[in-house]
Each structure stands twice: as structure tokens, then as C-alpha cells.
């Protein structure tokens, strides 16, 4: 009997075909670099503070996976004093736009069996594994790229739209976004709370984790990031039938309303060291 693919397998297959996001978040689309930078403005301070507290500093050789516009990679060089940062992404046009001493832009598919950029003191991946098939396997692969004593730091999104969340257009729109991205490009955040356990399974030691949950403030980078993300993902979101265009429009208005109170999806950061 022929195997019938499950919806999850079909979503992952679609992700493979679309290179993990290019169907929705295409680097060549106008404003995509600005959208990525809005996310960086919301999360970079938390990321770089954690990396400093973990001891990342002068002389370190670092791999930044899914580097986007390169804000974390450049901070590692300019603020932490890293000796070298290899910044890898599926498309490096944003990285190449600002050449930086010590920064090597590497265009590659990190899921490819041929991806072997070397050994590093730090391997960092933020908002990457949630879009890829088999995050546990990817954590194993990234951990294998660490030099002895090296540090793996992984951050991904935590969905806060639980059954106890207030029912309003914002939570409905967020739920539709996660479902729509899952259906189209394979995004899956359900595994993220298990990330620390996965790091331990990969053989890392001194594993720990923290969650950062940004408040939603009108005009803030995180609010603007979600507006731009929803704009690109609208067809996928409405296709879920969880929301219609009017609901998304109302959610956008909520993010601009001074009286609206809410929180962005969280960012869970987990880390561990190779023995």
C-alpha cells in the first residue's frame, strides 16, 4: 500500500521546496531587510547580553546560523571582540551589503549533508530551527560543529496564545499566523519548550535556558515587526479560515492603539557546552 503523507509531512515537504521561507519571506521582496531589522531591534539586546554573560569574547571563532542582516554577527565582532564570525544564510545579499572585517558571509543550506564549515567556539542560531525539518537532528549537527568547550546557543519562538489567552483579534491573528506558516513553509514552534532537553540529548553540558517576552508597545520595533510579518503572510493566514481580512486589519489597529495591552510571542534561548 502506498504511503499517504500526513499534513505535517506535506508542510515539511513544502518547506523543502520553498527553501524554508522564500515562499512567504523572500529576501528579494522590497522591505524584507527592514522587516528583519525590526526583529533585530526587538531582540538583539537580549541576545548579545546573554552571549556576553556566557563569556563570548576576544579570540572566539563564531558561527552565526541564519544571520539575516548580520546584526548579531557584527555585534560579536565589534562589541565582544570575536576573532572571526562566519555568518551563514540561504541568501547573503543583506550580509554582503555591509562588508565588515572579520565577517565571512557564507551562502549555504545548513540542512545539506555537505554543510561542514569547521569547528567553532560559538555556534548561534536565532529563529532558524523553528522553520526547519527535524530540529533535534539540526541541534545534533550544530553541536558537532563545536570545538571542545565550545558553546551552542539556540533561540526560537514560544507561542503564548494558549487556551487561557484573551479572545481578541490579536490572539486570533497570531494563531492563524502560526497555523498558516506551518501549512505553507513548515514552521513549527510546538517543540521549542523541549529545546533544553534536546541540547542535553546532543551531549552538551551545563544546559540552561531563559525566556524573553517583549511587551507590545505602539510604534515599537516589535509591533512594527508583526505588522510587516502579517502583511507578507496574509494569504497563508486567511487560508486557514481561522481569520478573515477584517480580523487581521483589527489586529493591526490594536497594535497601534495606546490602550491595548499584550505581549509578543516569547523568545526561548537555550545553551550548553561541548565537553
UniProtKB/TrEMBL annotation:
Database matches in Pfam families: Methyltransf_23
Keyword set, alphabetical order: Methyltransferase, Transferase
GO BP annotation list: antibiotic biosynthetic process; methylation
CDD domains: AdoMet_MTases
Keyword Chloroplast tagged: no
Ranges annotated as biased composition (Basic and acidic residues): 9-32
Disordered: region residues: 1-32
Family matches, as InterPro entries: SAM-dependent_MTases_sf
Stretch forming the signal peptide: none
One Gene Ontology term of the molecular function aspect: methyltransferase activity
Protein origin, superkingdom: Bacteria
This protein's record includes keyword Glycoprotein: no
Protein name according to UniProt: Methyltransferase
Lineage summary: Bacteria, Bacillati, Actinomycetota, Actinomycetes, Kitasatosporales
Amino acid at each position: 500500500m502506498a504511503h499517504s503523507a500526513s499534513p505535517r509531512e506535506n508542510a515539511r515537504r513544502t518547506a523543502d521546496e520553498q527553501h524554508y521561507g522564500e515562499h512567504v519571506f523572500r529576501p528579494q521582496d522590497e522591505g524584507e531587510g527592514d522587516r528583519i531589522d525590526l526583529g533585530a531591534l526587538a531582540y538583539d539586546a537580549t541576545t548579545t547580553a546573554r552571549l556576553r554573560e556566557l563569556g563570548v569574547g576576544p579570540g572566539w571563532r563564531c558561527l552565526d546560523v541564519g544571520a539575516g542582516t548580520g546584526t548579531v554577527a557584527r555585534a560579536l565582532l565589534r562589541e565582544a571582540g570575536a576573532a572571526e564570525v562566519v555568518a551563514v544564510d540561504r541568501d547573503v545579499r543583506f550580509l554582503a551589503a555591509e562588508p565588515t572585517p572579520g565577517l565571512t558571509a557564507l551562502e549555504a543550506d545548513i540542512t545539506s549533508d555537505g554543510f561542514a564549515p569547521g569547528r567553532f567556539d560559538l555556534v548561534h542560531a536565532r529563529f532558524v530551527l523553528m522553520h526547519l525539518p527535524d530540529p533535534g537532528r539540526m541541534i545534533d549537527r550544530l553541536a558537532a560543529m563545536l570545538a571542545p568547550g565550545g558553546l551552542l546557543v539556540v533561540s526560537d519562538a514560544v507561542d503564548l496564545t494558549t487556551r487561557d489567552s484573551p479572545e481578541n483579534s490579536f490572539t486570533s491573528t497570531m494563531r492563524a499566523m502560526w497555523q498558516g506558516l506551518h501549512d505553507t513553509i513548515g514552521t513549527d514552534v510546538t517543540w521549542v519548550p523541549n529545546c533544553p532537553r534536546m541540547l542535553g540529548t546532543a551531549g552538551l553540558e551545563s544546559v540552561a535556558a531563559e525566556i524573553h517576552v517583549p511587551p507590545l508597545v505602539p510604534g515599537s520595533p516589535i509591533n512594527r515587526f508583526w505588522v510587516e510579518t502579517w502583511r507578507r503572510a496574509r494569504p497563508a493566514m486567511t487560508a486557514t479560515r481561522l481569520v478573515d481580512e477584517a480580523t487581521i486589519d483589527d489586529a493591526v489597529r490594536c497594535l497601534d492603539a495606546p490602550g491595548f495591552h499584550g505581549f509578543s510571542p516569547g523568545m526561548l534561548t537555550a545553551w550548553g557546552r561541548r565537553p
